[in-house]
Structures are given as C-alpha cells and as structure tokens.
Request: fold
Amino acid sequence: MTFLASWTRSNNITNQLIDWVARVPARVQTKLLIAFLTIVGLLIVLGAVGLQVLSGVNEQTQELIKLQRKIAAYRQVQHDTTKQLYNISTALVLTDDRMLDTALRQLSQFGYDLDRLEFVAKDEAELLGQVRREYDQFVGVVTRVVELVRGGRMAEAREAQLAQSVPLADRLERLTNQLVNTAEADMVAAIETTEQAYRTSRFNVIVFALGSILLALGLGYVISWSLIKPVKEIEARLAQIAAGEFTQRVSVANRDELGSLAADVNRTSEELGHLYRQLAAASRHKSEFLANTSHELRTPLNAILGYTELIQDNIYGAVPEKIREILDRVQSNGRHLLGLINDVLDLSKIEAGQLTLSIVDYSIKEVVQTVVTATGSLAAEKKLTLKTKIAEDLPTGKGDERRITQALLNLVGNAIKFTEKGEVAIQAAAANGAFHVAVADTGPGIQSEDQKRIFEEFQQVDSSSTRKKGGTGLGLSISKKIIELHGGRLWVESELGKGSVFRFTLPVLPDMREVQT
Amino acid sequence: MTKRILVVEDQEDNRRIVRDLLTSVGFELIEAATGEEGVRQAEVHRPDLILMDIQMPVLDGYEATRQIKAIPELRHIPIIVVTSYAMSGDEAKASAAGADAYVAKPFSPRDLLATIKQFLS
Reply:
C-alpha cells in the first residue's frame, strides 16, 4: 500500500512540476533551448571534472617518477662507494698501477653522482650536506692512500686504508642507506596517496555522472511533458470538435505558444458552435417556409377542386351538359396546377435536403399492383395492354413506400401517356440485394441525345408537347431523385422507333447511413 | 335515425364543401371552426362520427383527437383525420393520436363518403 501511495505521491509531484514548468511564460523555443543548454552545460562540467582528475593522476605519476630517480641516484652512490673500496683494496693487494688510476677516476665519477644526487634530492639538504662532507673526507683519504701506494709505502697505505677509508666508506654507506630508506618510505606513501586519490576521483566522477544523467533525464522528461500534455489535450479537443461537439473548452497551464494555440482552439470551437446553430436555424426556417408555402398554396386550390367536384356530382342541382364539359376542363386544369405545386414543392424539398423518407417495410409486388390499379383505366382508355411480370419470392424491402409508389406511378403514367398503341409491361425481380424494376413500352422510343435531357427538370422530349401530353415535366427528375435517395439508380434504354425501357435498381435494405434524410 | 357528423375545420370553404356534400346524402352536420370548439361540441352533441382537419391554429387536429379520445364517453366515436398533403409521417402520427382513419386532401367526395359509410354502416 505504501509503495502505491508513494508512487502516486511522486506522480503528483511530477505532475505539479510539469505544470509549473508549463506555466513559465517563455516561448517553447526558449524552453527547449534552456533544456538543451543545461544538458550541454552538465556535459561540459563533467568533462572538466574528468580532466581535473586526469591531471591529478598525472601529477601523482610525476611525483613517483621523481622518487624513483632519487632512489636510483642513492643506490648509485652506494654502488660507487663499494666499488671504491674494492678497487683500493685490490690495488693495495696487487699494487697494480692501472687499478690505482681506475680508483682515482672513479672518485671523480663518484663526485658527479653526488652532484646529481644533490640536484635530484634538493629537499634532503641536511643529509646531503653530511654526505658531501664525508665524501670530501673520503676523497682526501683515498687520494692519500693512492699516493702512499705509489710511493711504495705499503704499510702506511694499508693502515690508512683500514683506519680511515673503511670507516668513512661505512659511514657513507649508512648515510646513503638512510637516504634510500627515506626515499622508499616516501615512495610507498606516494603510491598509497595515489591509490587513495584514484579511489576518491573515481567515486566523484561516478557520482557526478549519475547526478548529471538523472538531472538531464528529469529535465528532459519534465520539459517534454510540459509540451506534450497540452498537445495531447488540444488534439483530444480537436477530435471532439471534428465529431461535432462544440460546447466544451480545453484548458492548458502553458503560457507560451501552446497556450495561445489552446485559446485559439477554444475560440474556433465557439465560432463553429455559433455557425452550426445559425445553420441549424436557417435550415429550420427553410423547412418551416416550405411547409407553410405548401399549406398556403394548396388550401384555396383544394377549395376550388372540391366545389367543382360537388357541382359535377349534382349536389347543387342538375348541371347542363355544356357546363359539365367546361367544369371538366376547370377540374383538369386545377388538378394540373395541384400536380405542379406538389412537384415543385417536392423538388425544392429534395434539393434543400429537407425530404424526410419514412422508412417502412414494403412489398414491391404490392407497389406494382397499386400502380396497375391506379393506371388501369388510363391504359384501357387508350386501348393499351397493361401487363406485369413479378418474380416469385421477392424479399420485403425497406424504404419510403409512398415515394417509391410515386416514382413507379410516374414511370408507368409516362409510358401510357407517350404510347399510342401496343402495351406497357412492368417487370419486377430481385438480384444481389436490390430490386430490379423495368417499365417497357411500345412507344416512339427516345433518341440518345435526349436520353439524358429527359431527366432534367421541365424537359420532355418534345418541349412543345408538354402542354399536349400533360404532366408537369418534373416527374422524371423527382422519380430519379427519390430512387437515388434510396441508394438506387434510374436510367433508360431506348432506340428511336423501338420503344423504351425505363429501368431502376433499388437496394432491398438501403444502407441507413447512406440514405439521405 | 339520422346520423350526426361533427366537422372540425378552420377554413370556411372546406367546411362548406363537406357540409354541402354530407347534407345532400342525408347526414346531419355539426360544425366547429377550431380544435377547442371541436372538443367542446363533441362533448355536448356526442356525434356518430368526427371529421377532423389537421392543420388548425392553436389546437391542431392531432391534439384535438387525443383530447377527445381521452374522454371515456367519447372514445367510441370514430375520428377520420383529414390532412392537406399526405406527408409520409402523417399516417403514423394520426394513428398515434388515436384516429381511426386517415384521408388526404384533396379528397374525392365519393371516396370520403365511402370511408364514412364504412364506419357508420
């Protein structure tokens, strides 16, 4: 539990730290620059520390080398002294003149060594002073012995050798031993100091490196998150806006460019919400206008048609034949006008995207039968055969039954209207998840140039015939739009003189997302 | 017994057309020019059938139908709803309000008579 608690505590602290950094009113560029410069600074300091350690180690090494030289020099003196004695002793025994010369020469060599010694061991001044004094004495004695030997006074030479050279040599040896010991002790101490210094330096460097790494990581983490967090929040907010949610606001702690970005996003969201509301209001107004216009236009017209029909039905008394004929014309004009109004309003609704489809289950067979019933008398009047070929086991479709009926009615009505003799055949089948319906007539056929045009508003093949043939000229374009709203296609196959076939496909179950409402 | 029909319609011409038509075949007519008056007349006269226009100001035909059907003594009276243009959603709205039948304007007088006779035979 405590681990979790301390983890959440440290999370909180890091969050606070991130927010604190975010609140700093400096540009993003500046923050990043500071972060990088800090890391560079740490690297530089680390380098400096490393260099310092190296130079320290170097110093120690120099010390050790110096000591090494001292010891070598001291040992040389020892060696020389011993050699001296040996030579003199040998010379005394052998009375060899050559050896005496060698001895004298060695004395000067001894002198050089001593000089070098004094140079190397400047801090042992006192001891060296003693050594010098002994040496000088030794030189004097040896020279005298050599003279005595050369002079043939062997007994005196031997005595001088024994009585003076040897003890002097002993003393020299002791002195140099002292020097060597001191030097060696120094060496041991120096080595240990070096060891110690190395350990301390290593520890310092490791600690400093770790510290720098942690600091760099921490700094990098905090600064990156102070920049990433607002970006993520802004991105989430933008996703909401893209999905149509305009009311919320994003809030970030930053007071730099990201802060102003967030403020801009908020303003954009507000503006979009505003525009969206305006758009919705405008759309509503349009719908209300269409609905009102529809009502206002149809009301008086319905009264006209209603009264005329009553008159025709003799409700107000018998009507003379001539007047009845005229009333027929009044009625048909009225109905035509009503048809035009309905079509124009339908079309403007579709184009305003205002047409709501009322999706119900329907049977295409029933739709065909409704249309046949409605147009039967019309076909009979023109002595045309009206036949149907409906496939078995047609599935139940989903769509706006009334509108689909309207479209089929338009196609069949047109077929009957434009065919003078022969037949009109309606076929219905289903394949690949769609209904395939065809309305074929034995009429005059349609030229390829006109085949596209007839689907446009107020276009009939022969513009002059619009009045003669009746109809509003809008039916085909409305039918096409109705079928397209369901996700289907309407087209014509025709050749001049060979009749026409109007075909359409209608998805049995239109994709609800694609159905425009 | 003479069947009495209540016509609720705000447009005078439309009311007259219905009146002339129905009286010529022997129905007795009660008229109301607003939805509110329609509900009141229904309560007072207990007609045998109600012809209800939809597009009326203040209280529309759906609401008036709902109110009449909510009164237990009046629930049995058939209500035929008449609307100016057969909107695809209107049929559903009509039956949701409790109407028994639905007729679109412009109605052919013969069809209207046939529908009325259906309910009053």
Observations:
- The radius of gyration of chain B is 13 Å.
- DSSP finds five helices and five strands in chain B.
- Strands of chain B lie at 4-8, 28-32, 49-53, 79-83, 101-104.
- The CA atoms of residues 38 and 44 of chain B lie 10 Å apart.
